Amino acid sequence: MTPCVASIGVLRQPKTVLFGPGERRHLPHLLAEIGRHVLVVTDARMAQVTEFKDMVTAIEGRGITVSVFSEAEPDLPRENVLTVVDRYGDAGVDALLAVGGGSCLDLAKVSAAVLAHGGDVRDYYGEFLVPGPGLPVITVPTTAGTGAEVTCISVVFDREKGMKVGVASPHLEAYAAVIDPELTVSCPPALTAATAADALTHLVETFTDRVKDVTPEFLANHLYVGKNPLTDIFCRSGLTLLNSSLEGVVADPSDIEARSATMLAAYNAGMAINTAGTAAAHAIQSPIGALTHTSHGFGVGALLPYVMRFNLPTRIAEFAEIGALLGAADPESTPLDQAKAGISRVEALLETVGCPTDLKTLGLDPKDFSYVADQAMLATRLTANNPRDLTHESVVEILQRGYDNDRTWWSV
């Protein structure tokens, strides 16, 4: 059985990507190219870290005015965007630097668009609604998992709507991404685990995504245009890296080589999802996270074993290749057995970092299954990427099996 292969390769990416330990040293030069008054967006923890303070000092040493917003919150509440725009809208800011996890990076990207074009962030919910380039943004991730440093989407939690909403536009793409693994060494163990689970889920979902017919009209109006030969390159690289690096990070969190490989895998995952998009696990996790107040990474990781089993009948070749990439598949066995070996190895990697692999552990209540399914089906931007059609009933089945920790193999 041959894998699904698209006839077109599509990538969206920052103008510049710098990767490697210590590469944050390039920030003053990069920022001098794009601005004289830089707004640095981060969170309260990162603002107190020595490396962060040193970066700000180095930037100011280049003669650049620096303002710091250090109130970014997890899951990016809409209120954060409103505060940034209100506080800095008339301050003469001409560039942004985002330092932190996915929420910090998403906050900077979407704030740059609102600062440039005005209005409320709600005006840009959806795809291709940002009217033009925002203020230039440089992203510096301090976690290895979200891929937000290279994606052109920001996910905002709108408390009044009670849901996460995406702002998706090529105009949110960063001017540059500076990926320095040294900045992840201080990352708390739980956050390291959750973001690693997120990266692994990105890679598996993207590699097994739906292949789409990418006409010029479709490409001009949709951010996620499906699995394709270029995204597959990033997926293969990322999966291979995580197969060994995750165990190394768990064994020794200060291991800079393992940290570097994990962060490179997360970058690969970000490049893949930026074009192909995530799918069922991400669509279903959002309402679960809102109900249980559990992390995004652990949520998608806990769902992944059951989403993989649901999708297996339509992606045997892809899961078999995952089995080969992860060194888990016997090449003499049947494609289906190789695919099952790949799925089992992915589950083992989730367990290596301490990710829960059932939904009961997350605190999901069975009485909420129908509500979660209803909300997941509204995320059409994500469900459209899943290789097997999702229905309300199939989502409820995924939830039930996930709650019961039922790892039996499903059949269509």
Calculate Rg over CA atoms: 20 Å
Count of distinct structural domains: 2
In whole angstroms, the N-to-C terminal distance is 17 Å
Mind describing the biggest β-sheet?
6 strands, parallel
Specify the helix fraction band: 40-55%
CATH C-level category of the largest domain: Mainly Alpha
Question: Based on the structure given, which CATH architecture of the largest domain is correct?
Answer: Up-down Bundle
Structural class: alpha/beta
Side by side, the strands of the main sheet go 1-9-6-4-2-3
What's the helix count?
A: 16
Range of strand content: 5-15%
Can you tell me the overall shape? globular
Topology-level CATH name of the largest domain: Dehydroquinate synthase-like, alpha domain
Mean pLDDT: 94
How many beta strands in the DSSP annotation?
A: 9
How would you characterize the overall build of this protein?
By secondary structure, the protein is an alpha/beta fold. It folds into two domains: 16-184, Rossmann fold, CATH 3.40.50; 189-404, Dehydroquinate synthase-like - alpha domain (Dehydroquinate synthase-like, alpha domain, Up-down Bundle), CATH 1.20.1090. Helix content is 48%, strand content 10%. It has 16 helices and nine strands. The longest helix has 23 residues, at 229-251.
